[in-house]
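Issue 218. Parser rejects a valid record. Input:
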Amino acid sequence: MKHVYLILLILMAGQGLAQEITELQNRIISQTLSQRWELDSADKKGTFRLNYYKPFYITAGRWSNNPNFQPQSENPDFSVPEASPYNNYEAKFQLSFKSKVLQSMFWGHGDLWIAYTQVAHWQIFNTDLSRTFRELNYEPELMLNFGLNANVLGFRWRTVGVSFNHQSNGQDLPRSRSWNRVIFHAGLERDRWMVVLRPWIRLPDEEDENPLIMDFIGRAEATVAYTVKNHSIYVIARNNLSFNPNRGSAQFNYVFPIKNNLRGHLQVFDGYGETMIDYNHRQTTIGLGISFIDW
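Output the parser choked on:
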């Protein structure tokens, strides 16, 4: 995974990363799905241009009511034998990019994208652990996206597609966690609303580090976003689609203006799987920071 990360960083730098990020920071009004995925002819910008994928934010102070001091797995080889003295407070940040590599496939209707998302949880206030990074999650993705224009219950159904997704934390035994998925997605919008639905299928793994991850993190995800002026609210909900027991998570985000292009970001999470190492660990977290790009 470290090699994949390095290659993606080099690609980003070669495409003028600094200039692109500056442009992204100025996009403080939420884009339509067509603008995000270059669906309509007026929005198409060609291939190998760096763009954002998921939100960019930095949370300087994130509080957890139940830190995962001793991560466990249903596979005993991946259960941590001793607890670590983690703080309840840490920093969190998320970076996410995508780039179109093939355009107008399948009779002009499909585009192929590559994407990379990284989420970091940093024990920056923990001097006992030398301010270590508690968890880094790496998520490369290959996506095939098709543009649509259909009416569904008052919404415009604008995208449908499928992706191959790998997610891991890059750690050694017994803290290593990873899984591979085929994710289906559909995007709808109406006025200031956007809805993205993502059910998935997990691919088999011989050395399963997290056997019951689907039962805790879930089998599907829904993102609902609402934007008015420079204020944005978006909720990301995951569920295992089971009645007994029913598990998953919900993440609430409120992005608000502070001054000029500077925007604050309030994030509240409750449930399982805020990180890969926490896939079967439930906690409630509250974080406050700044946002550069949202949904």
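Fixed in the parser; the record now loads. Helices lie at 2-14, 17-25, 33-37, 105-108, 213-216.
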